[in-house]
Amino acid sequence: MLPSNVEHYASAPWMRETHHAYALGETRVVLVEPICCPPRPGEHQDAQKKRQLAWILWARDLEARGRKVAAVVLTHYHEDHTIGVGPVAHSLGVPVLGPHELGDAIEGWHVVRTPGHARDHVGLFDGHTFVAGDLLELDADTRSAPFLRSLDLVADMDPELVLTAHTHPIEERTFARYCAWRLGQSAARRSHEFGR
Ligand SMILES: [Zn+2]
């Protein structure tokens, strides 16, 4: 179950599996990656606009429930995290803030620099929940030093819940097991290589 300061929105799939987007905050809210994919074959050419409208209505509903949207946030600049986001932010009158625009924190969430999947990838952490974007995507190479440093950093933060862009929420114990496995695997490889 999600904590009270997080709401989830499953965007329509595009190119790959569903994209999980989030609204973070109790009163002032950041929307993480409200993507809207372009029309698919056979869809009406207004399909993307309809998806954008659905996002805007959702954001308006958040505001009607006392959660003012302050910004749209991107964890990195891959196209499946940015497509159609600009018009949504423009309609809401809020800025789009990616890794290059974000400071150390936004609306009470720490911006955590997590290179690996992308060189300028970031996550968001409120002391309990870590929004991981694509940090844990399978294409992240276990030999990649930046990825392992990022994973080590997040493991040390000991999040109770990890929210990713393309999977279901990951609970604390599962995440800790995953980190132990990936980081242990890497440590074993290093000692093997040094031992030779
Ligand atoms: Zn990505």
Would you write up a description of this structure?
The protein is α/β, with parallel strands linked by helices and 196 residues long. The chain has a single domain, classed as Ribonuclease Z/Hydroxyacylglutathione hydrolase-like (Metallo-beta-lactamase, Chain A), CATH 3.60.15. The protein is 34% helix and 24% strand. The chain is built from five helices and eleven strands, in the order βββαβααβββββαββα. The chain has helices at residues 47-64, 79-82, 85-92, 145-157, 172-195; strands at 6-11, 19-24, 28-32, 68-73, 96-97, 105-106, 109-113, 122-125, 129-133, 161-164, 170-171. The strands form two sheets. A six-stranded mixed beta sheet has the order 6-7-8-9-10-11. Strands 1-2-3-4-5 form a five-stranded mixed beta sheet. Strand 9, helix 4 and strand 10 form a beta-alpha-beta unit. The protein is globular. It starts with 5 loop residues before the first strand and ends with a helix. The mean pLDDT is 90. Zinc ion binds at residues 76, 78, 81, 117-118, 134.
